[in-house]
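Marked as duplicate of an earlier ticket. Keeping the data here for the record.
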Amino acid sequence: MSSEPVAANPFARSYTLGPYTVVEVSGEIDMATAGSVAEHLEAATGRPAPDVLVDLRPVVFFDCSGLRALCRAESRARERGGRLRLVSDRPRVHRLLRAAGLLRRFPPLAKVPGPQPWSPEGTGGDGARPSPGGDPHGAA
């Protein structure tokens, strides 16, 4: 697959934050929706030395289909000389990773590192959200 941007969908959207490609995942991720997330993960890991953060904080349900997509994307990132890390402050995500034996492979970060693109620190101090395409919440 190419590393071209993928359009946001109800389950995933991607944006650039400094050196990172952030894939924000939301809603219920299961067999029916994991493909929508995988599209973003494939695009994010499609370039050399990708540095990908997968933000799972908005997720309300995540099953083995989502874990499979994460494992494939993390392997692809490593093959290309990069990395893929998870962002989650949710105990249930930590429990799922531990139960699946993936907590060492994916030790979650509590938040996305650095200023957020819609924070005053990330926008030159005015607090305005970025333009469409750069907005991780899809505001137009």
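See parent ticket for discussion. The longest helix spans residues 64-79.
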